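Thread: "does anyone have the structure for this chain?"

Original post by V.I.:
We have the sequence but no experimental structure in hand. Need at least a predicted one for the grant figures.
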Amino acid sequence: MLFEDADLDADDRAEAAARTVSSAFGRQLAGLPGTHLAATSRPASRLQQLRQPWHYWWQAHYLDALIDAGLRERRTGTPFRGPEHPSAADLAPALVRTIGLRNRMHYTNRFYDDMAWLALAVGRLNALSGSRDRQRPYRKILAALNTALESAHTPELGGGIYWNRDRNFKNTPATAPAALHFVRTGSRDRAQELVDWLNATVLDPETGLYLDGIKMVGRRSGPVQTKLERTVFTYNQGPVLGALLELGGSTNLARAAELVEAVSTHLTDDGGSARVLRTHGTGDAGLFTGILARYLAQAAVSPALPEPARRTAAGLVEATAQALWEGRGKRADWILFSSRPLEPAAATYPGGTAVELSTQLQAWMVLEASARVRRAGTDTA
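Reply from O.Q.:
Generated one for you, tokens below.
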């Protein structure tokens, strides 16, 4: 039915993506019972899976998507992959444990953007866990991640968060999700400082979009020289939008509405009847637009935004989800999604080619965003 029925509603489409990505890519770590992790690509033998590169931040977004599926399970009372398989509510905690195991018994690493993404996902899981006993391990993880992120927020380059432990580049990929993490954990002043830094340092006045970051160049012994990295990525706009919305206030909300319009103007392609969000290919970039869609959905259901901005955000999410669904294909017994919404999956992933987790997870995230828009904001987690 999932391949023939184009009339599935938004929740059913998100559920189909959740089932297919989790079943196709989810696996135990080295066959260890009680572990769960997503393979980087498929097909891959067990030996090839062991040799796959470690993409910590992909797993963080996989966790976020599993939480979305778990929220749907809570609403419907039905395990997302059926009663004979683990529920999303069981897989999410197993994934958190396994990330620590795979990351050499630590939850921190050398990239502050990675840690910010995991902090956001674990923070959501902690909020949904209920009892204090269930929350205790997540609070320890969050404390470690929070300490690391605070250490990267320094006065150099005017503020902002360093990208990694080399400490020569402060950028939007680290600063924006860190700002969102801080506002969600009650550090509103720090979050506002980071948003103010983004607005003062990397906001492009011509487009209204956020550039990549500011880098130290030249010799460290003399005066610090800097270079503005002007690349624009879809995902950088997403957590800035989320932080603006959750901080609130007239200035932040006005900037959020402007950002939605800037995304619509500069980061979309013509899908004929509607504008469709632009994607960035494969690898890490295969995740980017899924991240933006998550926060556009938040904007679409936010009563604090003007109706035109909400309508624009909703339209971008829904058009992109529709394009991905219409262009889906089939690989073995799972649904295959395109890395480019306006091209069919068979064109971006011809038969026999390896399929990357990032692009399939991106499609799942877009479809979850569409489902949230259709539910008109009844899920606030």
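V.I.: this helps a lot. The two ends are 30 Å apart (CA to CA).
O.Q.: and The first helix runs from residue 10 to 25.
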